[in-house]
Here is the input.
Amino acid sequence: MKKTKTSLARKIFIVFDYLVLIFLAVVCLLPILHVAFASVSDPNWVMNQSGLILKSHGFTLEGYKLVFQTRQLMGSYGNTLFYVFASTALGMLITVLGAYPLSKSDLLWSNALMLIISFTMMFSGGIITFYMVVRSLGMYNTRLAVILPTCVSAFNLILVRTAMATLPKELEESARLDGAGPIAVLFKIVLPLIKATLATVTLYYVVANWNSWFNASIFLTDRDKYPLQLILREVLIRNDTSSATSASSGELAGLADSYKQIIKYCTIMVASVPILCFYPFVMKYFKKGVMVGSIKG
Here is the structure.
């Protein structure tokens, strides 16, 4: 087989491209390594460091022990898992059910509906209106205030709708000739063919819900309902490590104070590792799912 010659300009571009990507990868990786190594290092040594920490010093897991002994933190962890699962499941269901009819070119007022949906991506009623609506619906200080108001993303709905619109109409027509109804067509024909898009949208929902803290901060007053990210915010921004430790006795309280910086690092790792582990399972679908509808013909 005859090999195609690569021009010098192309080789230079490829080398430059790889160098830029390697640089970006290092920039993204360094903070993770810094936090990871600092979280298992001697607290007194960490307190005296001013630069990046790229190796552990005086290996210890005492900071993680303090974090995992905390009922408040473990409770918020459970809350976050519940919020992520409930919001993602509800969001995916509404997104699919909304995108399917909108993908039909013969739907009455389809363009007007898409315009209204797209409008919400650029404009909103503001935080005050949002707060008043949620409170008037009786969801204040309930888990529904975290799950319902933002469970659906207009961008994700448009992404799924575009994927459905690219499918050949003949597939649905043949299924209907065999006696399949709209629900059967959707769940047995359409959804299996857009798995890549569904995986990508699921990733978007999971990451958004995992990192969400603002709605909880304005709608929840009961700390037992706080998500993990709100506790992490208190630890990092308000410098309140008592949110991440259950130290009550004098000895444990003194230990928690000496481990103040380590507790921050440990809390960050505890909050970040689950979502980092989730990425590899859906990344194989990501490129195909996010590029759907971008190439015509």
